[in-house]
Write a structure and sequence with these properties.
The chain is an alpha+beta fold. It has nine helices and twelve strands. A four-stranded mixed β-sheet has the order 3-4-5-6, covered by helices on one side. Strands 9-10-12-11 form a four-stranded antiparallel β-sheet, with helices on one face.
Length: about 290
């Protein structure tokens, strides 16, 4: 998103995350700072459900508060929800779009994370009306965005669209009914990753109080906090010598403060690979941690 904004000459402002999603206090401070510069915040982009890379979800009360903030500031919310249907411990929270009573949410979805990555097909629900020169309700935002998309990509592949259509017809037009096996697989991987972290880090007398991680209730990622900064040199050593690939959270943010955190993914791996990988990762962390 920031890359596209840069190309288009649109100014962006990063807002930090709290333990369970966007930090709403920081958001309000950012809005105030922008307004003090004589500018107007127009839109907010976020992933409220099992986000990448943190794996956290915004609680219901915070969702309702966020919607009210957007309404009061006349600001659109772009809700990107690629992982919301991958809930492993009960149902997900209602989407921002479902809770939206003011028409401030533009909903972004994808089939790539739920069916298979090569599809690269998504969708958008943008039912806001654009005011015309007389201030009256004009076309829907979705109609205008469709025109823009047609100029950029000409057309989304009809083959991949037909594949999705056929898949939906075979599953009574429901993605949810088709995800039972996938969710069982991902949940087992998540549980294996949590168990392996507890086994290798939680019981280590040196690392038990220095390494921590969160508990994702869905999605494909969790976050581990390390006792030191994972520099590019250390990251290279981790890959080359220990054959473990992790992703520093500093790769995902424009803000400081995440230098000692990494993302672990548990999607395209087996439970045995997870167990082996965590054991090797523990050896790597231990080798760089003083007793």
């Amino acid at each position: 998103m920031t890359g596209i904004a840069t190309i288009l000459g649109v100014e962006t402002y990063a807002v930090g995350a709290a333990d369970e999603g966007i930090d709403l206090e920081a958001l309000q401070e950012a809005i105030q700072h922008i307004k003090e510069q004589g500018k107007t915040p127009r839109a907010l982009y976020l992933v409220p459900d099992f986000n990448n890379p943190l794996g956290t979800s915004l609680p219901l009360a915070e969702r309702q508060r966020l919607l009210r903030i957007a309404h009061e500031e006349n600001m659109l919310i772009f809700e990107d929800n690629p992982y919301g249907m991958l809930a492993y411990d009960g149902d997900s929270f209602p989407t921002l779009k479902a809770l939206d009573q003011w028409g401030v949410v533009v909903y972004l979805g994808t089939f790539s994370k739920l069916l298979f990555p090569g599809l690269r097909v998504g969708f958008m629900l943008a039912d806001q009306r654009i005011a015309n020169e007389d201030g009256e309700a004009g076309p829907y935002l979705a109609q205008e965005l469709s025109k823009v998309k047609s100029l950029i990509s000409v057309n989304t592949s009809p083959v991949t669209q037909a594949m999705i259509g056929g898949f939906l017809l075979e599953h009574d037009c429901s993605l949810k009914s088709s995800l039972t096996e996938k969710k069982r697989y991902y949940r087992a991987n998540r549980d294996q990753l949590l168990q392996s972290l507890e086994q290798h880090f939680g019981s280590d007398p040196v690392l038990a109080d220095r390494v921590s991680w969160n508990y994702p209730h869905g999605g494909l990622f969790l976050t581990v906090t390390l006792p030191f900064v994972l520099t590019p040199q250390l990251l290279q050593q981790c890959v080359q010598e220990y054959h473990v690939i992790v992703c520093p959270l500093s790769f995902f943010t424009l803000l400081p403060g995440r230098e000692r955190q990494v993302r672990l993914s548990f999607s395209a791996v087996t439970q045995q690979e997870i167990a082996t990988g965590v054991a090797r990762f523990q050896q790597f962390i231990r080798s760089h941690t003083s007793p």
